[in-house]
Amino acid sequence: MASGYDEFTRQNWGFLSEEEQSRIAGTRVLLAGCGLGSNIALLAARQGFCRFIVADGDVVELSNLNRQAFRREHVGQNKARATASLVQEVNPQAQVHVIPFFLQAEDASALVQQCDVIVNMVDPGPALHGLMAAAREQGKFTLFPLNIGFGGILLAFGPESPTLEDLVGSDTDPALFVNIVERLIFSLPSYLLQYAWVAEKVKQERLAPPQLGVATAITAAMVVRGMVSVTLGSPLAVVPTVAILDSREPRLIGWPASRVSPVS
After folding, report:
1. More confident residue, 121 or 176
2. CATH class name, domain 4-244
């Protein structure tokens, strides 16, 4: 990577060493799905990731703009191509291979072989499970994110962890993601219980689940942190442990009493 990369990433100092940043620059990332993947790609590029394969056959719609990284000028464009353009606006040196169609199960093994970390956001079906299986067979990590309410969920699958099938069975139903959320519901922020009717409506009427921009931002941050952990070999919780982060129920702490000036 040319010297401009050092200037581009210099504000990462203190949290990432030069050697760690170099490893991030060399990591190859597969983003299978470029809805949420557009946010992940953009944030990963700002973190210093430079090598991407982005795959999606969908086109940008106006309704995507409430939460995905695209702009109005991208409406009607292929999501993978638009994602590549966003990454290269941030870092023109980034290498982004675009696959502008929906992945099939038979694509999985060859794609996974080209990458170091896989972010699986494919719609429920054989391709989703094919990517999971190929990553496991090749000893690689898969990050599996979901937006929920005002936050996000991240399931990380490693070569030795339980599989997605272990958790939910061979579920290719379009409501797979809702089924996952329902299994976790009593571990999720308590306010989500009042929206249980939403999950039921999604399943019964085959609707696209509602998603908020704030949730997408949080989920993308969780995924990029997971990508850094995989790259650097730092601790990463894998399933059955699930990472949950929510902006509506943040952790509250008290200011240390000894540092509070008395009121006169």
Report:
1. 121
2. alpha beta
Q: How far is CA 91 from the centre of its chain?
A: 20
**How far is Cα 246 from Cα 141, in angstroms, rounded to an integer?**
24
Q: What is the 3-state secondary structure (H, E, C) of the chain?
A: CCCHHHHHCHHHCCCCCHHHHHHHHHCEEEEECCCHHHHHHHHHHHHCCCEEEEECCCECCHHHHHCCCCCHHHCCCEHHHHHHHHHHHHCCCCEEEEECCCCCHHHHHHHHHCCCEEEECCCCCHHHHHHHHHHHHCCCEEEEEEEECCEEEEEEECCCCCCHHHHHCCCCCCCHHHHHHHHHHHHCCHHHHHHHHHHHHHHHHCCCCCCCHHHHHHHHHHHHHHHHHHHHCCCCCCCCCCEEEECCCCCCCCCCHHHCCCCC
Furthest CA-CA distance within the chain: 72
Segment 166-189 shows an average pLDDT of 85
Which region, left, alpha or beta, applies to residue 49 given φ > 0 means left and ψ of -120 to 50 means alpha? beta
Mean pLDDT of the chain: 93
Burial status of residue 97 (CB atoms within 10 A of its CB: 0-12, 13-18, 19 or more) = middle
Whole-number pLDDT of residue 84? 98
- The pair of structure tokens assigned to 66 is 């409430």
Count of alpha carbons within 13 angstroms of residue 249, beta-carbon side: 11
Q: Which of 208, 193, 207, 175 is nearest to 67 (CA)?
A: 208
Domains in the chain: boundaries: 4-244
